[in-house]
Amino acid sequence: MPSPSLHGVIRWCHSHTQGVFTMERVRSPIISQKLRVVVAGKKKQRRKNISSVVIGIIIIVALEVCLHQRACHTMRVHAFMRPQCAQNLRGCVFSSQKQRVEVKWASCICDHRPKLISLQPIKSACNPINNNNNNNIFIHTRHHSTTITRLQADLSNINESNWQSFSAELEETLELPSISVPARHIHWLLSNKDSPIKSFLALTMDEFEGIHPKIKVVQNLEQDDDDDEVRKRILLSSVELIPDDTFHELQEKFHARKEDTFNICIPPHQQPVTRILSKLLPEEAQPPPSSYEQVGHVVHVNLKAQHVQYGKLIGSILLDRLQPTTKTVVNKLGEVGGPFRTYQMELLAGEDNYFVHVVEHGVSLYFDLRKVYWCTRLEGERTYMLKNEFQPNQIIADAFCGCGAQLIRAASQKGCRIVANDLNPDAVEYCKESARKNGIDVSPGNFDVQCGDAREFIMNLGMPMSESSSSTSSSDTATNISKLPHHLLLNFPLDSPSFLNALRWWPSGEIMDPPPRIHVYTFARGDDERTEAEVAIDMVADGLLPEGGYSIASKFRGDYLNELGCNVEAREIRDAAPGKLVICVSFSASRTLLRRMQGDFFD
């Protein structure tokens, strides 16, 4: 059976006085879009807004249907779609019991203007597509069905122990059209941008999205006795939809000819995890989990409430499909919290081993995932800092270093001197051990990592060793680097700005030129007046120089900080929640700023 047009089935059920337009979707919904339907009778016209689910691209369809004695005589379709989708429609057949129409031409351009798709009647009679409902109109296209059918077996009996016994049922077979050409033309037809069949190759079909390894679109072909040279089969998504002039070009220039259909088998081990889960999980657990994060050999997922009771099955499938790099699958329980910013986890499948080895841009990191905070999504931010902020042989300070990914990369790749701190003793030990294993000299003055309070750590930066030791209750919080750092990182989004008042202890008379750059990471939500970045800048300003007391929020203070020589910049790092972003506010700890923080309000 041909597959639904534009990845779905558009079904239009009509009567004398009303029309209903529905779009059935077979894949995970991404965007919800209002569709307008216009139904015109003899003296009646109705408009109705109907919600539908659109996949991947927004498709806005308006149908104008003239009804006469319950038969469809004319139809025009206006659509916003990507260019390839217009090609998908050419050759589609609209069918009802009494009438059949075919798309004679279809076109689309990329400036989002609607293009007319012409439908013309087909005189030949045909059987209705659905005998149970003679008033249904169906649209079919070139693709084979993308419907993901759940197994007919009792899904309640499928668990992590026996799901692999259903491999035969999970296997998919697709019947694809094909053409053959002499082998000497294969490379040009597949690789050249001007190839007339490039947009019709089987790999463009949604059925092959996520398939790994990819199918081979070129297959061997049994040679005929009349063939003068070896021919190869090319698998296509359609032969009928190739324009006549294009196919004539293929015949004349490349000696192409149509061949019989070819069956492609897709075993379970080639299918994406979400497709397997869609078949095995019951209806109440749909749609299945669609994302996960891998940290070393550990994969962790955030299961929703409807997925929790099937966690073991989901974990077993993930473990099987992601081998050999995955040995443990866990479910994240709750949110990151506590003084060390860790979270609880539940073992779903695999080994009860959480000590991971992570390689990031050639640097090896070793830590226990249960005992330290780790965020893979910050890899891009760490790379940004190395490329755009840190310079070779600079001094980098970090008050919340964690397991030290940023610092170890800076030390190994740019030769930076490191002074760092974290409240979590396990994170400090893992940071030191990872540095040693990466060949970094961890001697005093080169790579110092200590466990203690971040506020005292910031206060002591720049102080001589003897002064810092005497000013604190514990020698563990004293730094061995007496020179102010070139960069200070405060990556504790929950409360970083509150630690900025510790900068008033820095000696304003010893500020280097250019002054140290402070990088503050904080959560921020925009409001009616300010963007998220402006809110974050105001939070930093309040942490440095509170204005109006702690009970009154000050606004738009970025220009004020710049007047003090701070050169404030704000960057969006990532989404933390709907409407909540992580923003990095960078500013210079200028001499004027420090003097103002220390109570000197005179220039």
Notable characteristics:
603 residues, alpha+beta, single chain, disordered N terminus, 28 strands
What is the alpha-carbon Rg in Å? 32 Å
Oligomer: single chain
Summarize the biggest pleated sheet. Answer: 11 strands, mixed
Q: What structural class should be given to the helix and strand makeup? A: alpha+beta
Question: Fraction of residues in helices?
Answer: 10-25%
Total of helices = 14
Strand content: 25-35%
Q: Provide the residue-averaged pLDDT.
A: 75
The number of distinct β-strands equals 28
- Cα(first) to Cα(last) distance is 82 Å
Shape: elongated
Unreliable stretches, pLDDT < 50, 5 or more residues? 1-147, 466-480
Describe it.
This protein is an alpha+beta fold and 603 residues long. Helices cover 20% and strands 32% of the residues. It has 14 helices and 28 strands. The strands form five sheets. Strands 1, 2, 3, 4, 5, 6, 7, 8, 9, 10 and 11 form an eleven-stranded mixed beta sheet that branches. Strands 24-23-22-25-26-28-27 form a seven-stranded mixed beta sheet. The protein has a four-stranded antiparallel beta sheet with strand order 13-14-12-15, covered by helices on one side. It is elongated.
